[in-house]
Write a structure and sequence with these properties.
The chain is an alpha+beta fold. It has helices spanning 2-26, 29-42, 134-137, 243-248, 250-255, and strands at residues 46-55, 59-69, 72-84, 94-102, 106-114, 119-128, 142-156, 159-174, 177-178, 181-182, 186-198, 201-211, 214-223, 233-241, 260-262, 265-272, 277-278. The radius of gyration is 22 Å and the shape is elongated.
């Protein structure tokens, strides 16, 4: 009886795996490509790629992947691979592992879990911000620096929960605007951020930029919407420039003078949505 039960428990995921493998093998690449493109369109994005094909044993791969919105290109990947993990099937979970290269040496990797325990995790290392087209196409800014990111989010009672941490070294920000309001150009030795997501609300636990002559802190929260770009913002940007830095960029700070709370301190409210922030 016990042996029969073992065969039964092991046979279900094995049969499912065989079914998925045969489905992938006998489904034309163009049909799979169409499913991916339509799924991106339903989420409000467009995706283009070359060198699309199947990856052994159950997965897909593509080269030169580009994800765009109506504002322009958001992310370019030199290669991408998604595969179904085998062993989690025997515990009743469908886990997809993904890996992608960003720019010359950046890497993104993680896992996404489907079904009742939906969620994902992500690790990124060596990603040069200048290799991420979002900053030039959408933010219209000149950005440099090396990004490291680590995050995990899962669905709890139909609401996302998790945390995301990031660090940027050698950051340079130029031409940054919030709405029509310019912010000062600056170099930052280190940028660190920590975001906590609880019951569908994203709280900035910390987000600091330590620069040459200026210290910047961003705080606040956002209730996550679907799509994420429509999430309303309730943030405050605090800037504390040193006198010599303020003198070098006096024109920008003249535009921000109404947000000055004390000598050498500015507090700027940021509203709108994640896709269209405004002051």
């Amino acid at each position: 009886m016990k042996q029969r039960l073992v065969y039964y428990v092991a046979g279900i995921p094995a049969g499912l795996l065989a079914f998925l493998f045969l489905t992938l093998v006998f489904t034309p690449n163009d049909a799979i490509r169409g499913v991916i493109v339509r799924a991106a369109e339903n989420a409000g994005y467009t995706v283009a790629f070359t060198g699309f094909g199947k990856a052994f044993p159950v997965g897909v791969k593509a080269d030169n992947v580009e994800i765009s919105s109506d504002k322009g290109s958001l992310l370019k990947l030199r290669r991408a691979r998604v595969r179904l993990e085998i062993f989690p099937l025997f515990t009743g979970k469908a886990v997809f592992a993904y890996h992608a290269g960003v720019g010359a040496g950046g890497e993104l990797s993680g896992e996404a879990t489907a079904g009742r325990t939906q969620g994902w995790n992500l690790k990124g290392n060596g990603i040069r911000l200048e290799d991420v087209p979002f900053f030039t196409s959408v933010a219209e800014a000149k950005v440099r620096g090396e990004l490291k990111v680590d995050g995990q989010v899962k669905m709890v009672n139909h609401a996302p929960e998790g945390d995301i941490k990031l660090e940027v070294r050698g950051a340079e920000l130029g031409g940054v605007k919030i709405g029509a309001m310019p912010l000062p150009d600056a170099s930052y030795r280190q940028v660190r951020g920590a975001l906590a997501i609880t019951k569908g609300k994203a709280d900035l636990k910390s987000f600091t930029l330590e620069g040459d002559g200026i210290y910047v802190r961003l705080k606040g929260a956002s209730v996550l919407a679907n799509p994420v770009a429509n999430s309303p913002l309730d943030l405050t940007l605090e800037m504390m420039p040193k006198p010599e830095f303020l003198e070098r960029q006096k024109f920008v700070f003249l535009l921000l003078v109404k947000y000055q709370t004390s000598p050498g301190a500015y507090s700027i409210p940021i509203r709108g949505t994640l896709g269209h922030p405004s002051i």
